[in-house]
Amino acid sequence: MPIPAANLYPPFNITRLSHVEYGVTDLAASRAFYVDILGLQVTHEDQSRVYLRAMEERGHHCIILRQSDTAGVSCLGFKLFDTPELDKAAAFFEGKGLPVEWIERPFMGPSFRTRDPWGVPLEFYVKMDRLPPIHQQYRLYNGVKPLRIDHFNMFSANVDEAIAFYGEMGFRVTEYTEDDESGRVWAAWMHRKGGVHDVAFTNGTGPRLHHTAFWVPTPLNIIDLLDLMSTTGYVANIERGPGRHGISNAFFLYVRDPDGHRIEIYCSDYQTCDADLEPIKWSLTDPQRQTLWGEPAPRSWFEEGSLFDGAEIRESDLKAQPIIAP
Amino acid sequence: MPIPAANLYPPFNITRLSHVEYGVTDLAASRAFYVDILGLQVTHEDQSRVYLRAMEERGHHCIILRQSDTAGVSCLGFKLFDTPELDKAAAFFEGKGLPVEWIERPFMGPSFRTRDPWGVPLEFYVKMDRLPPIHQQYRLYNGVKPLRIDHFNMFSANVDEAIAFYGEMGFRVTEYTEDDESGRVWAAWMHRKGGVHDVAFTNGTGPRLHHTAFWVPTPLNIIDLLDLMSTTGYVANIERGPGRHGISNAFFLYVRDPDGHRIEIYCSDYQTCDADLEPIKWSLTDPQRQTLWGEPAPRSWFEEGSLFDGAEIRESDLKAQPIIAP
Amino acid sequence: MPIPAANLYPPFNITRLSHVEYGVTDLAASRAFYVDILGLQVTHEDQSRVYLRAMEERGHHCIILRQSDTAGVSCLGFKLFDTPELDKAAAFFEGKGLPVEWIERPFMGPSFRTRDPWGVPLEFYVKMDRLPPIHQQYRLYNGVKPLRIDHFNMFSANVDEAIAFYGEMGFRVTEYTEDDESGRVWAAWMHRKGGVHDVAFTNGTGPRLHHTAFWVPTPLNIIDLLDLMSTTGYVANIERGPGRHGISNAFFLYVRDPDGHRIEIYCSDYQTCDADLEPIKWSLTDPQRQTLWGEPAPRSWFEEGSLFDGAEIRESDLKAQPIIAP
Amino acid sequence: MPIPAANLYPPFNITRLSHVEYGVTDLAASRAFYVDILGLQVTHEDQSRVYLRAMEERGHHCIILRQSDTAGVSCLGFKLFDTPELDKAAAFFEGKGLPVEWIERPFMGPSFRTRDPWGVPLEFYVKMDRLPPIHQQYRLYNGVKPLRIDHFNMFSANVDEAIAFYGEMGFRVTEYTEDDESGRVWAAWMHRKGGVHDVAFTNGTGPRLHHTAFWVPTPLNIIDLLDLMSTTGYVANIERGPGRHGISNAFFLYVRDPDGHRIEIYCSDYQTCDADLEPIKWSLTDPQRQTLWGEPAPRSWFEEGSLFDGAEIRESDLKAQPIIAP
Ligand SMILES: [Ca+2]
Ligand SMILES: [Fe+2]
Ligand SMILES: [Fe+2]
Ligand SMILES: [Fe+2]
Ligand SMILES: [Fe+2]
Question: Which domains, and CATH codes, for chain A?
Answer without folding.
Answer: 14-129 (3.10.180.10), 143-307 (3.10.180.10)
